[in-house]
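Model it.
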Amino acid sequence: MRAKILTLLRERGDYVSGQELCDRFGVSRTAVWKAIGQLKKEGYGIDAVRNKGYCLVWEGEIYGQHELDSRMNTKWAGHPVYFYDELPSTNLQAKLDAEKGAAQGTLLVADMQTAGRGRRGRAWSSPGGTNIYFTLIIKPDFQVEQVSMMTLVMGLAVAEGILKTCGVEACIKWPNDIVINGKKVCGILAEMSVEREYIHYVVIGVGINVGLQEFPPEIVEMATSLQAECGHAVSRAELIVNVMKEFETFYEIFRKDGNLKGLVERYNHLLVNRGREVRVLSPGDEFVGISRGISEIGELLVEKDDGTVTKVYAGEVSVRGIYGYV
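Modeled.
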């Protein structure tokens, strides 16, 4: 009920009488009073005035189950949402939940990860109280070869969600990084369970650097945070909801087309190294070319010196700028 009260107070933006809350949610005045008291303990600024009711006057950065529940106005992505103070890894927990039958749209959010992972098994620094770590469970009804495109769909959703929340244009570094001013602000890791070409589930994990922080020495030159780039604090809950809303939109386009045809133009607009020289690194091979954007199935199109265009698949490939990270 606390989440429902929060949603109503936030939407109303004014005082809501205790009697209206009782009637709306079918509870007693005492139950409403207790719920308001619990919300205040969680940090919400709620003004209570006799004969006027309750008004949400200040929220600040409150991050937890009730905040996410009260904001999650999506159709299916983020329903249900589970918040954890700490997890080893949201992807690992999501896979365990998916094995037990968790539905499509289930979202797991952690304030801190003790064993966060990035691409190729790299450790992902996951301190508490400052960043976003979440994993979305998807139960696809398409072919295995289409799964790799879902990372790109999520990347587009994160970039658009950041713009909507912070007013800062984030770009995409193919295939799974989001960058602002040439520095990484987000990484994405998709994993799946497959049996005989049947996809049991896909989990898409996202880590976003949000608050001001000190980065480990090995990444300090290539990492940044949203607050550092936009100059003000960012609501983690609001950003998660905005990303989920964008993902719903883009995922439905992707499902309808069966590929990225309907998203290519938008994606290429945000592709940070489009039209620039890049170095493609893969096991046993390395070459330089000009990035020409992505194909309808998510390949990076790289034009070599001789004019031929090579289609680069994500897999174990890394793409770097000639003079740095991008």
